[in-house]
Amino acid sequence: MSKVYLTGAGPGDIELLTLKAYRVIKEADVIIYDRLANPEILKMSKNGCEFVYVGKEDGRHIMPQDDINETIYQNSLKYENVVRLKGGDPFVFGRGGEEAAYLQERGVRFEIIPGITSAVSAPAYAGIPVTHRGIAASFRVVTGHESPSKKTSQIPWENYKTDDTIVFLMSLHNLSKISKKLIEIGKPSNYPIAVISKGTTKDQIVVVGTLEDIVDKAKDVPTPALIVVGQVVKLREQLKWFET
Ligand code: SAH
Asked: Residue 90: inside a domain, yes or no?
């Protein structure tokens, strides 16, 4: 009886893959993978393993989510060991929940293999701890996909006045609107913010600035990238380790 493994590929650095993910990848008959999953991981599979690409390019879906769900399902009818490989963690803005529900409704067995999310690991490789005693007692991971100027926002902006860390994923295209919105709710214009591009990889770029100047400073930064807002950004000065 076949099984689908909804598997986190980690943020980029291939060694940030879990042992469990490594095991199912080695045993996979087919791997259905995303743009954000490091393609080097595919080389760990056995001979004859099939690869199916269902990624997105600059936010533009190569394949709509419904078709991805159906592709996973069809592969589960054909193969014993199906790996659905997703960047970071499958349940952190990975739509892994939708894929799991689709399989559950069709009686297909599945397992979730969590991965190291970029939301925490890219800041870590930038020398930015998302929490720090006396500085940030919590952190939030927020979608930056939705425009902050949207009238009926699902994001509780008013709650973001504190010094707790905010990590915005899928956010680079809204950087200007996000920084404006944070100033609008009362953060000072010199408040610390960082943009981390291609975190945990050899191409990692970290740009540190303020809510006022970050748009200018980060204008040429490539995706995938995330935004970190909070006093913890200042710790990078002392804790940066990856680039040095
Ligand atoms: N499930 C993934 C997130 C998917 S949403 C995870 O847990 O990491 C896609 C967003 O993740 C991108 O728009 C970007 O904001 C972020 N992202 C993924 N990999 C990244 C990386 N290596 N460096 C910086 N941001 C990354």
From this structure: yes
CA of 169, closest atom in ligand 1: 15
- Report the pLDDT value the prediction gives residue 148, as an integer from 0 to 100: 81
Residue 32 sits in the same domain as residue 84: yes
Q: Is the CB of 136 under 6 A from ligand 1?
A: no
Q: What pTM does this model have?
A: 0.95
Please report where in the chains the tokens 């490989």 appear, as a residue.
Answer: 85
Tell me: pLDDT of 58 over 90: no
For ligand 1, say whether the CB of 117 is within 6 Å of any of its atoms. Answer: yes
Domain containing residue 67: CATH number: 3.40.1010.10
Strands (E), 35-114: 50-53, 56-57, 60-61, 81-86, 109-113
Active site residues: 34, 56, 170
